[in-house]
Every structure is written in C-alpha cells, then in structure tokens.
Amino acid sequence: MRLHHLALAASLVALAACADNTRPAPTPVAATPPPAAAPPPATGFDGRYAGTLTRTAGSQAACGPRSSRATMAVANGNATLAYGPRGGRSASGAAQADGSIALSGEGGVQGAGRVQRNRFTGQLRSGDCAYNVALTRAATAARR
Predict the structure, then answer these.
(1) Domains of the chain in sequence order
(2) Of the candidates 126, 121, 76, which has an alpha carbon nearest to the alpha carbon of residue 101?
(3) What's the whole-model pTM score?
(4) 95 and 78 Cβ atoms separated by less than 8 Å
C-alpha cells in the first residue's frame, strides 16, 4: 500500500511540474478615446452681406471717411469682412451657432457682431477709430 501512495505522490509531483504556472495575461486597458471633434461650423449664416461702415470715433484724418461701403462673405461658417478704400482692408472670424462673429484683422483691428434675421450688426475698432457695421444678406436664387 505504501508503494501505491508513493507512486500516487510521485504522479502528483510530476503533474504539478507540468502544470502551467504562468500568470494569465493582464486584461488590456481600454484605449483613451480620441478628443471630441470640434463642433461643425455654423453654416446657417452663409452668404454675402453688403452695407455700410460708419465711423463713430476718431478723426477723418486718422480714420478715413465718416461712412464707407463694406461687404462680408460667410462660407462654411467662416466670415471675412472687407472694408476701407476699395475694400482693401479686411477682418475675419468664425460664425457661432447663435450668429455671433468675433472679427480680427491686421494692425490690431478687432470687432464683433451678430447675424440676426439676415442682417449683421456690430462694431469694429482699430486704435482710436471705431465704427458701426450694418450689413444685409443679399438674396440668392436658393432663398427666393
């Protein structure tokens, strides 16, 4: 009987030696999700706007005429305001979902306004010069 126990013990030792003693592979850590994509541009305001830029502060010598033509193009949510002699100056920005547009341009030009009911109204400032901007969206065949 002893021999039988001894043979059983030897078999168990041999089995234990053959057993896989490696640890299970670690559970993979979930990859960090990519950052949320930027919101799509506001395109409901796309179109061409035309109107006037009216000086509210600053002298004519420093800032130009009291009133001049201005145009703004909004495409895929990006706005570009052209103004000054022959539209030679510009400021640009992005249209937000609420229609607000913050503008900036060369020489420290800063401005802001909002599109509401097919009209853009806002202000533009450069140094001591300040202007009111009033533009109306041009009708297009798609909107008629």
Answers:
(1) 47-137 (2.40.128)
(2) 121
(3) 0.67
(4) yes
